[in-house]
Amino acid sequence: MSQPEIIAQLKDIIVEGKVLTDAESLSFYGKDWTKVFTPAPLAIVFPRSIPEVQALVRFANKHKVQLVASGGRTGLSGGAVAAAGEVVVAFDYMNSIKDFNPIDRTVVCEPGVITEQLQTFAEEHELFYPVDFASAGSSQIGGNISTNAGGIKVIRYGMTRDWVAGLKVVTGTGELLSLNKDLVKNNTGYDLRQLYIGGEGTLGFVVEATMKLVRPPKDLTVLLLGVPDMSSIMNVLNSFQQKIDLTAFEFFSEKALQKVVAKGDVQRPFETQVDYYALLEFECLNEQLAEQAMEVFELCLEQGWVMDGVMSQSLTQLQNLWRCREDISETIAEWTPYKNDISVIVSKVPAFLAEVERVVSEHYPDFEIIWFGHIGDGNIHLNILKPEQLDQESFIEKCHHVSQWVFEIVEKYQGSVSAEHGVGLLKKDFLQYTRSPVEIEYMKAIKRIFDPNNIMNPGKLVDM
């Protein structure tokens, strides 16, 4: 079937939505935040209903037309890139919150619901959706599920996986599966829902999700602490966790803070300059908890684990302290950073980070390294900033070599080459550093079952 014939058929199938083929739309919807791969989709389609999605997949399966799911396109691994004439399936029009159950504390969402939209809905009903990250204003629930998104609250609330009560999915052959039916207890064999969570759209499309909500946290308070080294951060984490249930524990380097402060929108939290900073958040529900926090803070000062610190006294101050951490990604974007999202178990972080930094600095001393991340769950982000005199292509090539060295260290520490951003195109060649050959073969076998003709996000995660 020729391309014009395929497009004509798509327009017949997506009767309630629309089909775009103009150059601007193909470029916009064919890429994600990686900006490494050149988008080259055949068309962009916007289904409005599950039957339309099923009809689309059956047509694609019959004619071997390859499909790429598109949410908010905020991914950082190339998972939503269409670079080989695929049809992009954008779920922007399937964006309704369909049902809410206050007793079960669940809400039924279409895949195009924006993360912030769900957070606001929960707040309006005096509840809380705790999965939160910088792209909450544009990322979509379907994409969050497909990448098992994490973010800043994982230490307390876990990943997206922990908040999915049930799923409806359309497989690579167009079948509609209703998985788990929102049950809390369902001990009837394999939980196929979990295959789609983190599956990066390679097994089919998430077309409806029942998400769990929880009571909102109260009286949140932030402590921002200056620490001399990574080992001290671990001691701080251990000391606070013995006394207080934390809702977040983040870290960032002095170099990261310098970039944020230089932009002019955020002030230094205190005058003391140290190599690293730890940001702790907790519910300060009473005076006793506040006193306990200060006691632990003073202990950390006495032990030399903390050099200085500040505790938020208002919502405005809390938000400003958070900006020291949350503004990093946007601030360093002008240097076209090469990002690595990696993880090890929490206790191994200091030794792991030191070894990575030593290898990168040894081979490329002109590369500036910016560290930050969700250290409370072992997830750290390595950002390498492009030197001004180096062209983009050469920079990416050199960073690719860096990634191999970094992932060899990841393998040594039995960590993950992708903690929360997924594998996509960018990390597919490095999957073997986290997954064994046998595991990868089983993943391919599962792919063949759900998507026998390899039409669902082909070339991502694993090759058939």
TrEMBL record:
Lineage: Bacteria, Pseudomonadati, Pseudomonadota, Gammaproteobacteria, Oceanospirillales
Assembly notes: Homodimer.
Keyword terms: FAD, Flavoprotein, Metal-binding, Oxidoreductase, Zinc
Catalytic activity: (R)-2-hydroxyglutarate + A = 2-oxoglutarate + AH2
Enzyme superclass (EC): oxidoreductase
Recorded family membership: Belongs to the FAD-binding oxidoreductase/transferase type 4 family.
Domain FAD-binding PCMH-type: 37-216
Spans through the membrane: none
Gene3D superfamilies: 3.30.465.10, 3.30.70.2190, 3.30.70.2740, Vanillyl-alcohol Oxidase, Chain A, domain 4
GO biological process, one term: respiratory electron transport chain
Enzyme Commission number(s) from the entry: 1.1.99.39
Name assigned to this protein: D-2-hydroxyglutarate dehydrogenase
Flavoprotein is among the record's keywords: yes
Organism: Zooshikella ganghwensis
Cofactor(s) it depends on: FAD
